[in-house]
Amino acid sequence: MKKIALLLLFVCTAATAQKELPNVNLKSLDNKSMNIKSDFSEKDKVYVYVFWATWCAPCIQELDAINDVYGDWKEELNMEIIAVSIDDARTGKRVKPMVNGRSWDYTVLLDTNQDLKRSLSIANPPYTIVVKNGVIVSEQAGHAPGSEHEFFEKLKSL
After folding, report:
1. In angstroms, rounded to a whole number, what is the distance separating the alpha carbons of residues 79 and 126?
2. Rounded CA gap, 126 and 23, in Å?
3. Please, what's the b/e burial string for 96-122 (b: 16 or more CB within 10 A of its CB; e: otherwise)?
4. CA dist., res. 33 & res. 47, Å (int)
5. pLDDT digits over 122-156, tens only?
6. pTM higher than 0.70
7. Are the C-beta atoms of residues 111 and 123 closer than 8 Å to each other?
8. What domains lie within the chain, and their CATH numbers?
9. Exposure of 31 by Cβ count < 10 A (0-12 exposed, 13-18 middle, 19+ buried)?
10. CB of 110 within 8 A of CB of 93?
């Protein structure tokens, strides 16, 4: 009986460990509505959603560090980085100038109402989720300088 209970617990835990990406619409920098689930759904492509804000120094450091190696990453993997700004209406006007000034080669989406952030139960930026085939396969909170190399190794293993 114990073995059956443990097996059931393991199966239930494994089934809930990976969750689907929520069906949320966000705006791009050019005010185009984009659906997180349908617009980023290429089969076997890895989508990395980096939640950030203009007032978050570790977020900017992380996006700058990834930007330095992003071209190499895309040559080796079928992947895309989506930088999701959680700036509100008050600080949101800083997003586009910051992105342009840093020459980030990312798709940038605006989560001004924090609908996506709330639906994923994200507390604070920087926060990164990795999605493959519509399923969240990895999550990471925070940023440490130099961690982008370890992160890339993790992406290659997916």
Report:
1. 19
2. 21
3. eebbeeeebebbbbbbbeeebbeebeb
4. 18
5. 999 999 999 999 999 999 999 988 888 889 888 98
6. yes
7. no
8. 19-156 (3.40.30.10)
9. exposed
10. no
Q: Report how far apart, in Å, the C-alpha atoms of 66 and of each of 5, 70, 106, 149 are.
A: 44, 6, 10, 9
Alpha helices in the chain (DSSP H): 2-17, 57-76, 95-102, 115-119, 147-156
Distance CA 155, CA 130 (A): 8
Give the span between the Cα atoms of 96 and 78, in whole angstroms. 26
Residue 5 pLDDT greater than 70, yes or no: no
Q: Which residue has the tokens 């100038």?
A: 97
DSSP 101-127: HHT--SEEEE-TT-HHHHHTT--SSSE
CA 11 to chain centre: 27
Question: Which class for 84: exposed (0-12), middle (13-18), buried (19 or more C-beta within 10 A)?
Answer: buried
Inter-residue contact 104 to 29 (CB < 8 Å) = no
